[in-house]
Structure formats: structure tokens, C-alpha cells
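$ fold --in a.seq
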Amino acid sequence: MSSLFARSVHDLTAAAWFGGSLMGAVGLNGAAAEAKDPRERTRLSSLGWKKWAPVQSAAIFAHIAAGLPLIWDNKGRLANQQGVAASAAVKTLVTLAGAGVTLYAGILGGKVEKLSEQGAEGATEPSPHASDELKAAQKQLKILQWTIPVFSGAVVVLGAQQGEQQRPTQVKKGLFQ
């Protein structure tokens, strides 16, 4: 895999993960909350997230897979340039944590979908009459659906930082300022 291709896939998949998760939290959940039937609010949101899940999963997987040749291509910099290994380690941890949060949000989303007949105020806002199980799942899901863009956005920012570490002045100095 060429570095240009790997870097392009790496960046585009991070952007897809960020943009899709933010659109879901804002657009999909917001639109589903407008459904007239309270039972449709969680059902429609769940359906939308379920349709997005394979694309999001593929984006995360491709992002990680494209990162491997980038690490290989930059092994010398990882070993010798101050700050590069630490930056790569942080980005790896953030990526894996974000992937874990995304997976858990999907599990909770499935639980919310199964309980959708109870109705809701919004996609992640429970009805006062909902079961404690649905209320707890929706409250957790709301937090997670806003946490995913934070993690995936951090991945994008850390990728930009790593690009800056490759600037000739930074490579010559051996550190990132």
C-alpha cells in the first residue's frame, strides 16, 4: 500500500467516523425526535443508526488497517524523532477507546430499539412513563453518542499533529514544538 493511498484512507475514514457520528447525534436524533408518534422516535433513530453502523464499522476498521503501513513507513521517525512515538501511542489509545465507545453505543442502541414500543420524548430522551431499563439505556446512549465525535475528532486532530511532525523543520530538530 503506497503511503499516499494509506494516508488518504486513514484521513478519510477518520473524517467519515467523525462526520457520521456528529450527523447522527445532531441530525438523525433531532429529526427522529420530531416524529408525532412517541413510539416512532426511538424506532426511527435506531433504524438510522443501524443503517450507519456497517459504514461506521468499516471506516474504523479501514482507519486502523491504513494506520499499520503508515507506522511501518515511519518506523525510523518513531524510533528517533522526539515526540513521535508518544504521539503515535496517544493516537492509538484514543482510536481504540473511541472504537470501544462506538461498539458499546451500538449495543445500547440495540437495547433501545427493542424497548422502542414504550415511546420516548426523543431518540435519547426517555418518556416519564418508560421503564427504568429504557431510561437508563437512553441516558447512557445520549452520553456515548456525544462522546464518539469527541474521540473521532481527537483522532483527526492527532493525525494533523502527526502531519506537522513531518515538516522538515520539525524532523531536523528532532522534536515537535
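$ fold --in b.seq
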Amino acid sequence: MTSTSSSSSAIKQRRRALGWTQAELSRRAGVSRSGISAIETGTLVPAVTAALALAAALGCRVEELFAEAPAAGGEVVWLGELPAGGRFRTATVKHRLVRYPVEWPCIEYAPHDGIQRTGGVWEGEHADPNRTLVIASCDPAIGLLAHHYRETTPYRMFVLVRSSKASLALLAKGLIHMGGVHLVGEGRNLGNTETARSIVESDVRLLRMARWEEGLAFAPAAKIRNPEAIRNRHVRLVGRERGSGAGQCLAELLGNRPWPAHLASDHRGVAEAIRNGWADAGVCVRLAGEEAGLGFLTVRKEPYDLCYLAEQEDDPRVQALIKTVRSRAFRSDLSALPGYHTEETGIVSR
């Protein structure tokens, strides 16, 4: 195949010579508008069927766009199944177009990019996968970062709510740009890096968000005076998945007590279960506990990092995110939240 840039240029030049918008080429070729955008910017290599359709629509031979027919790669990838009528968002990650079903909970209600329909998909004109950054994170303050990123850069960001290990698994598969991780206790500065490399099995970088306070949130009526009180089987617990950052902290506190039967998907889920009276206590970060009006006992102050692949370090979306995290405005807003310590915010470890 010719270089991606030359192929992209040929497609764009022919489209413009015909006076077509990307939307018009999308309609004539049967290729999504977001796919056209990704192909023209060189971040997506079209599959064979898409290349043939583009050539037919532009009135030329596929060899005029590509030195040889593209391999059957660069196809659209879905993160999970989506029923007819379901909404999705899109982003380009490692030269692939990834479609993400809109999930609950939504950190920010950004507009969806398209809708799955019987027999195909509909995509809106505002979708721009090449200017979209995707982060998987359990940080309850990640919406604050999304706000600053959207307001101060030409890019947008959306978040998949995932535990640390689930986030790293998505990063390893090339389905997200960054994954949040907190899998070490206080005092082990390199621990997140070591753990991330072992799961991702690739060279990674870690951007320090903060050191946050993780511990035991509890209903004020429970009158819990120390974290070890949860070993009393009369205290109803809400848990987290084993192996998650909060799950590690919970395991340290449980002693010989069995793992809780009821699990929450994230920090706010733990706090909500306690606030609504379904449990007496559980492990989360201080922010989630205090937001819900709960009592809180700090167990450890641990590093929370955003992990990304070293090979994606030059991606302008990643560089814009790093600049946002290091900005005075974001650091000031983050430090005002309970339990967030920002002395190391913005440091990148290798």
C-alpha cells in the first residue's frame, strides 16, 4: 500500500475536486462520515470493501487511491454489543475506528455520535473521532478533567467507568487512549508503573493525577470508630470487585471475614449503597463518601495515575490532556476536592 498520508491525500483531493463534502462522499460510498474523516486524516486504514466503495464513488480505480488493495484491517471495532436503537460514540485509537455504546453511568452527557439501526448505523454530522480522547477510569472527579479538557483544547473526552484492572485490560487491547490505575498502597511510587506494565505487556507512561485518600465510608448511625470494625459480621458491607484498587484496600481490612455478597461498580456506587441504607459501610475514596454525607476513615493515601502506551505519547490528544492536567486552573479545582493531594499532579513517570 502507499503511505497512509498519500492515500488520504488522494481521497481528499478527488472529493474536493468533485465539490463534495465528507457527508456527500459518505452517502455515495456507504461509508460512515466519521470513517471518511478518519481515512482522510490518515488515522484509519480502510478495509477492502470500504476502499472499493470509495473508488467506485469517486469514479476511479482502487489502485489510483492505493498502490495495492488494503488488507482487511482498519475495520470498525465495537466495544460490546449494541441493540437496535442504542446510542454510541466514536473515536480513533491506534488507526482503528472504535464505537462505544453509551453506558450508565455517564460522567458527562455529551451528545452521542450515532444510533444503531436495523441493517446499519446512523451517524451525526458532529461526530469527530479524530478529536476524541477516551479514558477508562473509576475516579469520581474525572468529570472535572473532562470539563477542563473540553473548555481549553480543540478536543473532546469521554469516560468509561471501569476499575483499574479493567481499564488496563482495555488499554492492552488498543480500545482506549488512557486507563486510570491505583493498585498500590502509600509509599510505593513505582508500583503503578510496574503493575501497569505487567498487565498491558508494553512500554507505558503514567501521568500522575493526584494522591487521594481511600478508606472506609460508613453511615453515621453505624458509629464505626476504626476501619477494623467491619470485621464484626453485624456490620453490613458493600464490596468492590476483587483485584480492583478499592478491593485491595477492602481485603486488607476484612481479616477472616468473607467477601461481601453485594458489590458496587465504582466509588460512588459504594457511597450510594450506604446512603440509601442498603449497607452500613464500604471502601471508597474520601470524595465519594463526603459527597454522600457519610462518615469516613482514611486507610491509605495512594497514587492515582492515568496510564497510556509509550507509542501514543505523541498523539496530540494525549499531549493536550497532559497540558490540561498540568494547568494551574485544573490543579486548583482538583486540590479543592476533599481527599485529593496535588503536589505531584502532572508528573509523567516512565
